[in-house]
Amino acid sequence: MDINKRTILWIVFAVSLVVLWNNWMVSTGKPSMFAPAPAQTAKAPEAKKSELPAASATAAAGAAALPGAPAAAEPFKSERITVTTDLFRVDVDTLGGTIKRLELLKFKDGVDPTKNQVLFDVDAGTGKTYLAQTGLIGAPGLPNHQTGFVAKPGPRMLGDGNQVQLVLEAESAGVKLTKTFTFKRGDYTIDVRHDVTNVGAAPVKPELYLQLVHDGNKPAGDSYFNSSYTGPTLYTAEDHYKKLKFETLEKEAAEAAKTGKDAVQDHPTKADNGWFAISQHFFVSAFVPQDKLARTIFTKKVTTNQYAIGTIQQLGTLAPGATVSNDAKLYSGPQQAKLLEQVSPGLELVKDYGWLTIIAKPIFWVMDHIHQVLGNWGWTIIAFTILIKLAFFPLSAAGYRSMAKVKLVTPKMQAIRERYKGDPAKMNQATMELYKAEKINPLGGCLPILVQMPVFIALYWVLQASVEIRGAPWIGWITNLAAPDPWYILPVLYAISMFITTKLNPAPADPMQAKMMLFMPLAFSVMFFFFPSGLVLYWVVNNVLSIGQQYVISKKFAPPAAANS
């Protein structure tokens, strides 16, 4: 067969587009083209939808609407209590003790850099709903996220101490529930403690639920080429990490409405460990329930454009006067692996590197150590590119020598094509004999590109997933290496470098193929308009180094025949 570098390059280009498309599909929660879809969750009769109070962010504030409240009671006047630490500002509503807003003070908004990044939030105007709710079920009227709580007096700012606590109390149906939120200095983890006391005259068997409610929309600023998975995720030691999908919950709810069945879903295997979360680009909110306590994990559609993932834990039977305590953690912050690993096993998996995780993790490890020395992620990418180039130097040198030989025999190849243009079989046979006689490996010039392609794709996911690079500047106009180049300078430089590389390569014998080769830099550069500038920086530096290496090898290290020509 007449195999040459241009054909292989087009194959690489096509494969790259397919792989990038597949990765984007996976990142948005759609099934991979190369793997079967994950098993769907099974029905859970234990976690009945009717037992869980409605999770709507606009629940009525009147006491008459609350479970177990007398109809003649005065309307409950809720208030938002704001707790401020060195890392975030949190609003907790006394109606239900629900976290309704969480602002990260160390991270700027991805769309408006004059504002801080907000995770939990409720906005009736835009329909945004992102809440952390807890409460009790198991008997009518037990305190839940629609019950009015009373806040105990105390500091609301971190101040000089290392922690600040918010204590909320509610009593209903003979049960007193005390929620204690503990906020610590330098920690994105909020300790959530529930103390349940039976203040009635009869035994009770309450169950504690923890849930995250989301509107199912991607964060503002999410684009086609800069997209990431947004949706429920969970982890248990038995079944490991799983992504769920809002679309699946919507379909299941629609099917349940037709059949009259319950739409609440359950994890296939009951667990006594793990966590559940809502993941989005660069950030995550994850509940870590009390360990070694049996739980039911559920997902459900709450109402129009609202979905929930949570757990229900049995607290046992409480005799009159008895108290049981439950300790959980709520992490709400950046997807930094070092921080996530300290919260719970497997939580670092929400930092999604795609199917090339085995390559992407070492890449980030190396880049992180380089950054500790250089202190700038742009120069870190450049230094990493140089390291990669040195690692592949022998392979690249062999490829460029092969291309230099191909340049020398191009006239002979054209003569063969003219001689056998009516007989493709003999043309291919004669071409392969020429390659053999001249000791040319027709794939030699493509091997460096093929080998580096997984590194290129893995680096794409490193830049996509690493919140450390989000908002990181390089020099001048590059103020965010995780965002596209605002002035398109790097994509243009890439196109120029690709054009020079094409000119240094052996010219195709086919004029049409030659025009297509000149078109490739333009096609890639247009695609790079939408890619993270850090990725384009890597490829520009790689091309510049390749041009220098190819020029030196072509002039000084070419075979003797090339040197004399």
Notes on the protein architecture:
The protein is of the alpha+beta class and 565 residues long. It folds into 2 domains: 80-352, Beta-galactosidase, Chain A, domain 5 (Distorted Sandwich); 360-557, no CATH class. It is 35% helix and 24% strand. The chain is built from 12 helices and 20 strands. Strand 10 and strand 11 (189-198) form a beta hairpin. The longest helix is centred in the C-terminal third of the chain and has 27 residues, at 393-419. Residues 1-5, 31-50, 55-72 and 561-565 have low confidence and may be disordered.
The amount of beta strand, in percent, is 15-25%
Distance between the termini: 28 Å
Structural class: alpha+beta
The assigned CATH architecture of the largest domain is: Distorted Sandwich
- Secondary structure tally: strands: 20
Summarize the amount of helix as a percent range: 25-40%
Q: How many structural domains does the protein architecture include?
A: 2
Instruction: Return the CATH topology of the largest domain.
Output: Beta-galactosidase, Chain A, domain 5
Strand order of the largest sheet: 8-9-10-11-20-17-16-13-14
Report the total helices: 12
What is the global morphology? elongated
**Unreliable stretches:** 1-5, 31-50, 55-72, 561-565
CATH class identity of the largest domain? Mainly Beta
Mean pLDDT: 80
| Largest sheet features | 9 strands, antiparallel
Subcellular location: Cell inner membrane; Cell membrane
Keywords: Cell membrane, Chaperone, Membrane, Protein transport, Transmembrane, Transmembrane helix, Transport
Family: Belongs to the OXA1/ALB3/YidC family. Type 1 subfamily.
GO biological process, one term: protein insertion into membrane
